Amino acid sequence: MPPDQLSPALARRVALAAQGLGSGSTAPAGTRRLNATIDRLGLLQIDSVNVFERSHYLPLFARLGAYDRANLDRLTLDGPGRYVEYWAHEAALVPVATWPLFRWRMADYRRRWLADDDSWLSANPRLARWLLDLVREGGPVPASLVEHESNVRTGPWWGWGSVKQGLESLFRVGELVSAGRRRFERVYALPEQVIPHELLDTDISRHEAHRRLLAHAASAQGVGTTADLADYFRLKTADVVPALRELHDEGVLSAVEVPGWGRPAWLHRDARLPRRLEADALLSPFDPVVWTRPRAERVFGFHYRIEIYTPLEKRVHGYYVLPVLQDDRLVARVDLKSDRQAGVLRVQAAWRERDLDVDCDRLASLLRRAAHWQGLESVEVMPRGDLAAELGRRFG
After folding, report:
1. For residue 300, which of 5, 20, 14, 3 has the smallest C-alpha distance?
2. pLDDT tens, position by position, 136-149
3. What is the distance between the alpha carbons of residues 254 and 268, in angstroms, rounded to a whole number?
4. What is the pTM of this model?
């Protein structure tokens, strides 16, 4: 029988174990483990910021340790294959088998935009047809090959920037899909050029899609509130509640109480309940463990705001700040930059979290592993943050 109550500490361990953290496996992180980890998570959120490393690489390093990033590129970015992109949480890589589960979202975008005379889709039907014909006749294409300064634009109906906007609009409504990336620029294709025919022909109702996505979110989070589970794939409460009810009735989810959470929670039937958990990880700002900021605060007591878009003088912790996980606690945060020209991983700031103990030897070892994974020769700690001096001594 599942428990009726989880302690906050056990809830933390359940959540981390469900995410594949603290597994203790030392198996080589080859293709099989990369695929298995992405399948467990359900998606890798994409972000273009590359000051330390682009975000979709980091959840796998946090869970598997050093791995060949070129291998991940071959799996996810080099062209049609096991993964495609869509707006799953935000822009994300998802298993291609998941793509049909988002058709309701594509239909929602289309319905909303066609009802709005000012939307790109309503205002540019001729350009939309032209773009689709272009991809149909010439194959997958990035925006830069369609719209750039040397192009002779054969139609008078669009202004500068409209092609990229159009490709993105058609991508959101499902008339175009991703066919990998070139130099991190998305390549657009027709669905039939990328998606297997058996998936193109799959018809999944809105309700069934929500049910499957919610079940995956619950499996990937282990335990969570209704809002936590809904946010994993950015689902709306009106669609989530009926699906939750069904999953509960079927025994997939059970209702539990976590003292201090202030709201009911749901435990997945396959969730592990570890008595202890050993983990050392740097978490991307877009890692599922922390990407829902209210959940990070509720589960870990960790108030987290990314400050990339905050003016320098108003930043509290730094530009690209990564939470530091030790066992089942977020104990610190470090602002990292890969100085590739100098071959140095720069810790631009290091902060301890509240009154939690930080094992600086473990953190220093983790940073050395991160530097090695990045192909960098050394680590340097800048004198900013209340953990900087103690951490810096490990690199003296």
Report:
1. 14
2. 999 999 988 886 54
3. 7
4. 0.93
Task: Select the more confidently predicted residue: 100 or 147.
Answer: 100
> 85 with 93: CB under 8 angstroms?
yes
Q: At what angle do helices 206-221 and 237-249 cross, to 10 degrees?
A: 70
Strand partners, 323: 333
Helix, strand or coil, per DSSP, at residue 322: strand
Q: Which amino acid would we find at residue 76?
A: T
Pair of tokens at residue 50 = 């590359």
pLDDT tens digits along 67-81: 999 999 999 999 888
Q: What is the pLDDT of residues 153-188, one digit of tens each?
A: 444 434 447 888 999 999 999 999 999 999 899 999
Bridge-based pairing state of the strands 91-95 and 253-256: unpaired
Distances (CA, A) of 18 to 41, 69, 87, 175: 9, 24, 23, 34
Q: What are phi and psi of 282, to 5 degrees?
A: -100, 125
CA gap 157, 141 in Å, rounded: 21
What are the tokens at 52?
A: 């330390």
Tell me what the pLDDT averaged over the chain comes to: 93
388 touches 382 (CB < 8 A): yes
